[in-house]
Amino acid sequence: KLIGEVLELGKQVLYLVPEIALTTQLIQRLQRYFGNRIAVFHSRYSFNERVEVWNNTLADKPSAQLILGARSAVFLPFNDLGLIIVDEEHEPSYKQFDPAPRYHARDAAIVLANLHHAKVLLGSATPAIESFYNAKQDKYGLVTLNRRYQDLLLPEIELADLKESYRKKRMTGHFTERLFLLMQEALAEKEQVILFQNRRGYAPVVTCKACGVAPQCVNCDVSLTYHKSGNELRCHYCGYHIPLMETCNACGSPALDTKGLGTEQVEAELTAFFPEAKVARMDLDTTRGKYGYQRILDSFKAREIDILVGTQMLSKGLDFDNVSLVGVMNADNMLNFPDFRAHERSFQLLTQVAGRAGRSGKRGRVIIQTYNPFHKILQQVTTNDYMEMYKEQLDERYAHNYPPISRLVRITLKHKDFLKVSTSADWLYRSLYNSFGSMVLGPSSPAVSRIRNQHIKTLLIKLPKDKPLKHSKLIIQKIRNSFQSIPDFRAVRFNVDVDCY
Hints:
Elements: H1 2-8, E1 12-16, H2 20-34, E2 38-41, H3 47-58, E3 66-69, E4 81-87, E5 95-96, E6 103-104, H4 105-116, E7 119-123, H5 129-136, E8 156-161, H6 162-167, E9 171-172, E10 175-176, H7 177-188, E11 192-196, E12 205-208, E13 225-227, E14 232-234, E15 241-243, E16 256-259, H8 263-273, E17 279-282, H9 292-301, E18 307-310, E19 323-328, H10 332-335, H11 342-354, E20 365-370, H12 376-382, H13 386-400, E21 406-415, H14 418-436, E22 440-444, E23 450-451, E24 454-464, H15 469-485, E25 493-498
C-alpha cells in the first residue's frame, strides 16, 4: 500500500533485500500488484542487464519505478526517490567489508533518503540493537506488529540436549531422537522440513587418527574443508583445492577421519535415513549461476523437495506454506563466536530460522540442538523474548563501551611478511594511543590471521558518540599519512572501516 501511494505520486521506490534468493520470491508478489514497473538489480545479473537497469533508473522510465535489489542497488542514479524499504534490516549481509567501498546498505539508504527527502521503512522481526536503540531514542519512529500475518500462531520451539543424547546413545547420525521422530511424522503427513546447518561442505576438518595432523591451506591460516561431491579438500577463503589424499601427508597412515558437520554430510545422512524422501541442499555450492536460487526455491514451493538443508541463506524471509518442522543442527557454533555481537546475531538468526515453520494454518515446530540448553540466548529464543535480549545486550554494551553507545573504527593491516605487519601494527598502536588513549584495542590477529598469503593485524578504536567524527577522522588520516611515509611500512596495506560490524 505504501509503495502504491508513492508510485501514484510519480516517485521511485527502492526495495532492498539482504539475499539475492529473496528477489526470486518477492518479484512474483510485487508483479501481481505493480505489473511491469519493477526492475531487479543484483550481482547475479549480467553486466549488460545491470547497465540497462542503471540507464532506466537514470531516465526515470516506467519500467524502473520500483527497484528491487541487494545492497549495491543503493548506488543507482535515482531521479525522484520517494521511499526506501530495507527488508530484514538487521542482516549482516547488508554490510560490505571487502573490497572498498566499505559501507552498510541500511545506513547508506538513510543518507540517500535524506538527500532525496524520501521516507525510509526499516523492517525486521528482530531489529539490530542499534536500530531499536535509535527508535527508543526517538530518532526513528517505531511501529510494532504484535501478531503474525493472518493471526498465525508462532512456532513451538524446543531445545534438544546433544550432550544427554550422546551420553544415552539416543542419536541417529547427527539427529537427536526428538528431531528424528518429528521428521518421520512430518514426512508421513506429506509436510516439508527445513534443516539449518551454518557450515557448507561435508566436514570442516579432516584429521589423521595416528598423528593428529589436519591438512592446511597453503595460502591461508585455516584447515581445508572436505567436499564429498568433488572428493576434494577446499579452502573457503582463497579457493585453493586438492584431491582428498588416501594417506596422511605427514606420517603416511591411511587412518583419516572427518571432524565436524557440514551441509553435505547432513544431506548424505538424510538420504540414507529417508531413502523415499527427496532431499536438496541450498548453500553457496548449489546456488551458483543466475538461476541457482530460483531452481531450488521453485522446486521446494512445488513440493518436489521434502527436506531442504541449508546455511544461513535459508533464514532470510523465505515463505513456504507447507513447512511444519524446522531443525537447527547445532546452535553452539554461533553463540561461541568471538564477536561482541555473537549473542545478538545468534538470537536473530535462530528466531528467523524458526520463523520459516508454520506459515499456513497448522502451528509449526522448531527443534534447536545444542550442548547448552540452559544458555540465556536459547531460552530467550524459545520464548521469543526480543526485549529481554535487547536489554541484556544493551547493558553489556554500556559496561564495555560498544555500539550503539560508541562508534567502532577498525584499522586492518596486511602484508606478506609477518614481521613487517607486526612491527607496523605496534608503531600504529603507539601513535593511535597518543591521540585516543585506552579507547584503542589491539593490535590483534583475527581468527584467520593469514588469507591469500597476506598476514593480518587489526586495531579497534572506540569513539564516543557525542563527539563529532570529523576531528577523529582528521587524526586518523594524519597518522595514516605518517605511517605511509615510513619506507618500511609503505608496502603494508592500510584499510579503515568505520562502523565495522
